[in-house]
Design brief:
GO terms for molecular function: pyroglutamyl-peptidase activity. InterPro entries: Peptidase_C15 (IPR000816), Peptidase_C15-like (IPR016125), Peptidase_C15-like_sf (IPR036440), PGPEP1_Cys_AS (IPR033694), PGPEP1_Glu_AS (IPR033693). One of its GO terms (biological process) is proteolysis. This is Pyroglutamyl-peptidase I. With 209 residues, the protein is an alpha/beta fold. It has a single domain, classed as 3-Layer(aba) Sandwich (Aminopeptidase). It is 32% helix and 21% strand. It has 5 helices and 9 strands, in the order E-H-E-H-E-E-E-E-E-E-H-H-E-H. The strands form 3 sheets. Strands 2-1-3-9-4 form a 5-stranded mixed β-sheet, sandwiched between helices. Helix 1 links the parallel strand 1 and strand 2. Helix 1 crosses helix 5. The protein is globular and about 40 Å long. The termini are far apart. 44% of the residues are buried. Bound molecules: pyroglutamic acid. The site of pyroglutamic acid has 12 residues, from strand 3 and helix 4. The site of pyroglutamic acid (PCA) has 12 residues, from strand 3 and helix 4.
């Protein structure tokens, strides 16, 4: 089977009843399908290792052209495609299985970082005049989102059977900053931009700190 895009979102964590990443992904998929994009979604547990295994299973089963993993970044005020995943686990709070790894690699012996293979600048540009602010983020943190992001980029970079599949990660704000329908619409635009952009556009998107 081959599809255009596989989106993932996360289960609730840290005492919350819902996770905006899954709410938005769940709404984005039918909207993409309506627009002719063959899209599927998978919900991931907030658990180191297990989450990325779940995503890997879905990637192998569905053979998407693009993988866009989505997570909640409470406190952010923009929808933020992540530039780079780092090979570290450092949990501020236990994951949903009670694990609290500190200063452990995601993949032992693998490179310190791996870049997104999504056109992050084009994705931000696609939202320029939209209702949701967007910006490139330079860090996905060191918790389960970065764990999934790093494991995904490592998988896509090292398994020849998955050659050509592009992937990356997008953090979304909490619903009190941007509601889930607006986040879902933003995700739709970002996915369409990623599908239609092979080489990223050259736009400034850096930061001084
Ligand atoms: N956000 C967390 C993990 C799950 C989620 O939605 C993170 O940013 O690592």
């Amino acid at each position: 089977m081959t599809i255009d895009v596989l989106l993932s979102g996360f289960a609730p964590f840290d005492g919350a009843a819902t996770n905006e990443s899954w709410e938005a992904v769940r709404e984005a998929v039918p909207a993409l399908v309506e627009r002719g994009v063959d899209a599927e979604a998978v919900e991931l547990p907030v658990e180191f290792g297990t989450a990325s295994e779940r995503l890997e299973e879905a990637v192998r089963g569905l053979r998407p052209r693009l993988v866009v993993a989505v997570g909640l970044a409470a406190g952010r005020t923009a929808i933020t495609p992540e530039r780079v995943a780092i090979n570290i686990r450092d949990a501020r709070i236990p994951d949903n299985a009670g694990a609290s790894p500190v200063d452990e690699p995601v993949v032992p012996g693998a490179p310190v970082g791996r870049f997104s293979t999504l056109p992050v600048k084009a994705m931000v540009a696609a939202l320029a005049a939209g209702e949701v602010p967007a910006a490139v983020s330079q860090t996905a943190g060191t918790y389960v989102c970065n764990d999934v992001f790093y494991a995904l980029q490592h998988l896509l970079a090292t398994d020849p059977a998955l050659e050509g599949i592009r992937g990356g990660f997008v953090h979304v704000p909490s619903a009190d900053v941007v509601d889930s329908p607006a986040t879902a619409r933003a995700l739709v635009r970002m996915v369409e931009a990623a599908l239609s952009t092979e080489a990223d556009v050259r736009l400034a998107g850096g930061a001084e700190h």
